[in-house]
Structures are given as C-alpha cells and as structure tokens.
Design goal:
Blueprint (H helix, E strand, L loop, with lengths): L1 H12 L12 H21 L3 H22 L5 H8 L1 H23 L6 H26 L4 H39 L3
C-alpha cells in the first residue's frame, strides 16, 4: 500500500522536477569549498583555545588541592583522645554536660551582689579548662596514661566542686540580703 502511495506521489509531481544540468565548474567549486571548510575545521581542532587549557589546568589544580587536603586531615585532639581512651571520652561528655548545667545556673544568679564572684569563677574555670587541654595533649603524646586519666577526671571534679561552692556562696549571699532586707522593713 505504501508503494502505491509513493507511485501516486511521483506521478503527481511529474514534470516539476529540476532536470537541468548544473553550471560548468560546479563540481570544482563544490570541492574547493569542501576542502577550505575542512582546512579551517582541522586548524581549529588542532589549535585549542587558551580558555580551554586554562580551565583544564585550573580543574586539575583544584582536584589536587582537595585530594591533598582530604588525605592530610589530622584528627582533632578530642578524636585523638577518644582513640587513646574511649572511657575518658564518655566521662568527658558526662562531666561537660554537668558543668554546662551548673554554669547556666550560675549565670542565672547574676546580680550586682554576685557579679564579682561569678566573674572570678569563670576565670578559674577557663584556667582549669586550659589545664585539661594540656592534659589531653600529654595523653595523645604518649604520656603515662593512668596518671593523666586520673588527672583529667580530677580536673573535671575540681570544676564541679568549684561551681557547687560558688552556688552555695551565692545562696548564702541571697539569704543574707533577704535577712537584712527583712530587718529594715518599715
């Protein structure tokens, strides 16, 4: 059926086809244009642009920097301590949460009467934290692990005791202030 349709189409178009010969030299002009197009495309293909070369070099440099950075990544001091002693990592999490709760409670008690004692306490806590960091470094460096672990736990306990003592002192200050205020009522 399709063959019949095509035959009908050609019969209908009969007489409208261009049956003339091309002008003389047509083939030579065509081949000349074809060869000149091939020459320019070959020349363009052989001569890469500077933008392409620069972008390729930049991509390679970025990949090299990223891969070197990933390979040379040193673990943090906390990660190194966790490798040396997983128990101290768990203890550190527990004590740190207790200390953070007490610091929050301490900051909530801030008033003109307690401001000096709170600021002194924060300075002492920073000193104890700096000492703890030094103990971590010593532990990672391969020091006496039992002695250092004991010192680290003692450091945490000292911080907690300090905060408890200060909170008790603040409570005493508040009670004394309330007692004095009660004596001076009109």
């Amino acid at each position: 059926m399709e063959k019949d349709d095509i035959e009908i189409l050609f019969k209908n178009l009969e007489g409208s086809f261009n049956e003339k010969e091309p002008q003389s030299g047509h083939q030579d002009r065509f081949l000349e244009k074809l060869s000149s197009t091939n020459d320019t495309s070959i020349a363009a293909a052989e001569k890469p642009s500077w933008k392409k070369l620069f972008s390729i070099a930049a991509s390679i440099a970025i990949l090299a920097v990223v891969s070197i950075g990933l390979l040379n990544q040193t673990p943090s001091i906390e990660e190194q301590v966790a490798k040396v002693s997983p128990e101290i990592s768990n203890s550190q999490f527990y004590f740190a949460s207790l200390i953070e709760d007490q610091i929050t409670e301490l900051n909530a008690e801030n008033s003109p009467e307690t401001q000096k004692i709170i600021s002194d306490t924060m300075i002492q806590l920073k000193n104890l934290e700096a000492n703890y960091t030094n103990l971590e470094k010593d532990l990672v460096a391969g020091g006496n692990s039992k002695l250092l672990l004991s010192a680290m736990i003692t450091n945490f306990q000292t911080r907690i005791d300090l905060l408890n003592d200060v909170l008790e002192q603040i409570e005493d200050i508040k009670n004394l202030k309330n007692y004095n205020d009660a004596n001076y009522t009109l």
